[in-house]
Automatic annotation (TrEMBL):
Residues 1-45, 114-160 are annotated as: Disordered. This is Sperm-associated antigen 7. PANTHER family: SPERM ASSOCIATED ANTIGEN 7, SPERM-ASSOCIATED ANTIGEN 7. Residues 21-45, 119-147 have a biased composition (Basic and acidic residues).
Length: 227
């Protein structure tokens, strides 16, 4: 009988120690705080959605507004706003490079932004329809001028007068000046023009003179002066 009672008592779960009770208490408190935070976050999302629905509704009813820019939001808030806008039948876009600075713009369907307008917002610039229209007209004008120039072919530019005729008095003065300098140089340094150095004798006369000079050198006689 004692052995049976001992086996039953040993098989029974022992009461938790003081340390185990403290750990379980902390776990219960942490779970309660987490649940409370989740409920608060859920409530905040509900309230934020109601506020966005109110602002979007006011935007739709205001005939003077065609677009609306919201303050920067976090990713969850932007997601809620995009959903509200889609349900309302509007168009929305997010802009801004940094996540902390990203914001949402909403547009009425009949005033949906063009690609140029969207690119302007992506660059962080304000959209100016008047400047954009002027830029578009200038671009179209430049394109038409290029097409007309291509149809006409290459343009040949003909001068009104020959530059040689136009500056002949300058060219003539320069040539005369160069000739005067050359003549002065010849006189100063004893230079002889090439035309004066040209040999006008015949080949036979030149050969006879060469032979005569050779004979005189061999005989030791003095050469007579040549005419």
């Amino acid at each position: 009988m004692a052995d049976l009672l001992g086996s039953i008592l040993s098989s029974m779960e022992k009461p938790p120690s003081l340390g185990d009770q403290e750990s379980r208490r902390k776990a219960r408190e942490q779970a309660a705080r987490l649940k409370k935070l989740q409920e608060q976050e859920k409530q905040q999302k509900v309230e934020f959605r109601k506020r966005m629905e109110k602002e979007v509704s006011d935007f739709i009813q205001d005939s003077q507004q065609t677009k609306k820019k919201f303050q920067p939001m976090n990713k969850i808030e932007r997601s809620i706003l995009h959903d509200v806008v889609e349900v309302a039948g509007l168009t929305s876009f997010s802009f801004g490079e940094d996540d902390e600075c990203r914001y949402v713009m909403i547009f009425k369907k009949e005033f949906a932004p063009s690609d140029e307008e969207l690119e302007s917002y992506r660059r962080g610039e304000e959209w100016d329809p008047q400047k954009a229209e002027e830029k578009r007209k200038l671009k179209e004008l430049a394109q038409r001028q290029e097409e007309e120039a291509a149809q006409q072919g290459p343009v040949v530019v003909s001068p009104a007068s020959d530059y040689k005729d136009k500056y002949s008095h300058l060219i003539g003065k320069g040539a005369a000046k160069d000739a005067a300098h050359m003549l002065q140089a010849n006189k100063t340094y004893g230079c002889v023009p090439v035309a004066n150095k040209r040999d006008t004798r015949s080949i036979e006369e030149a050969m006879n003179e060469i032979r005569a000079k050779k004979r005189l050198r061999q005989s030791g006689e003095e050469l007579p002066p040549t005419s």
